[in-house]
Amino acid sequence: MRIRQVELREIHLRLRDRFEISTGGWDERRILLLRMEAEEGEAWSECVAAEAPNYSYETPETAWHILTDYVLPAVLGVGFESPPSVLEPVRWIKGHPMALATVEMGAWVLEAVRRGVSLSALLGGTRSSVPVGVSIGLQSTDDELLRQAESLLERGYRKIKIKIKPGRDVEMLRKIRDRFPDAPLMADANSSYTLADAPRLKELDDLDLMMVEQPLGFEDLREHALLQASIRTPICLDESIRSPGDTLLALELGSGRIINIKPGRVGGFGSSRSIHDLCAERGVPVWCGGMLESGVGRAYNLALASLPNFTLPGDISESRRYWEEDIVEPEFVMERGSLVVPQNPGIGVTLRMERVESLTRRRWVRSV
Ligand code: OSB
Ligand code: MG
Fold first, then answer.
1. Residue 175 CB neighbour total at 10 angstroms
2. Is the pTM here over 0.90, yes or no?
């Protein structure tokens, strides 16, 4: 296949509610949308870089730079055999997985469109509907958090993830656990603790959490291994896992027992599938994380989460959890705690172009 036109846009999409984690917050998302066109069809994909370098070093600004100055000019007009090989011309680029994943994941959709199959089918998905969870940001009061947890549990989410940070952790989580003794709960610290906090983190063991996500630094696999050896609660790694190699290292060291896969963070679907497979071989469960995606990125995450070893509910909530109005139709709606995996060719949902047009802040187009 050969890409004959690329179009990159930045859109601004307001969240219904502010989303806050230990290292920063979002009121709106600055989303890069990429459209790639080949003779066989077109694909829209989403860059998930956060607005500030508080999750990883990438931002929409660095991704725009890497995509428009290096990646897109290099892949335009060049034939490729399989989706991951679309990135062959830019193998020399170090880092910037989210920018690169935007192109790699779009290439999977071009291939799905060419074959007339769904993205899920192309990736090897085995489920037509996927149980999902929800991530609740830091709230100003515990009462507000309780209110939100209650309404999201009532809505049917299969996993409730609660953001924590030093000073807002054990006591706050205990209130939730006391109110909802059987709820599937977990916590996400987004790298806000150090090994010196191990005694505090050990107190989580009384709360019957499914896991604690990324308690320590994003490069601290050794420290995570020491922490995991001293607490019962399974550690799930998010920020620390950027590749299959990181995953193997983490599992060998015992840095965690569960892996969160975000395809953007690991450079695309090729890498996501390798991580999925090597975890499956070792009996390590994985689940699909989220970056507050629009319906475009959500479609990709859902397709990935239809693979067999995604045995825990991911952070793939329904559209209305994030947006007043999504940019795709149909929007993603949860039924009995699950999202239906689109079965139409490609991403299986359609962009609402009028809406995308009105949200666009900049646009860059090249063709051959
Ligand atoms: O750590 O999983 C995270 C959102 C932005 C950055 C990092 C994270 C998150 C979430 C939200 O937890 C997950 C979602 O998209 O619903
Ligand atoms: Mg996380």
1. 14
2. yes
Q: Tell me the CA–centroid distance for residue 100 and ligand 2, in Å.
A: 20
Pick the CATH number of 121-340 from 2.60.320.10, 3.90.1150.10, 3.20.20.120, 3.30.230.10: 3.20.20.120
Mutate which of 16, 98, 241, 291 for ligand 1? The one with the most ligand atoms within 8 Å of its CB, which is 291
Buried b / exposed e over 9-44, threshold 16 CB at 10 Å, is bbbebebeeebbbbbeebeebbbbbbbbebeebbbb
Using one digit for the tens of pLDDT, what is the confidence trace for 290-299? 999 999 999 9
Ligand 1 atom with least separation from CA of 260: 2
CA 256 to ligand 2 center in whole angstroms: 14
Q: Determine the length of the chain.
A: 368
- Any idea which residue has 């910037």 for tokens? 96
| Known catalytic membership, residue 175 | no
For ligand 1, say whether the CB of 319 is within 6 Å of any of its atoms.
Answer: no
Q: What is the CATH number of domain 3-115+350-367?
A: 3.30.390.10
- Check residue 89 and report its DSSP letter: G
φ, ψ of residue 365 to 5 degrees: the values are: -130, 140
Q: From the CA of 81, how far away is ligand 1's center (Å)?
A: 33
pLDDT digits (tens, 9 = 90+) for 133-168: 999 999 999 999 999 999 999 999 999 999 999 999
Distances (CA, A) of 275 to 120, 128, 282, 287, 322: 17, 21, 11, 11, 28
End-to-end alpha carbon distance in the chain: 14
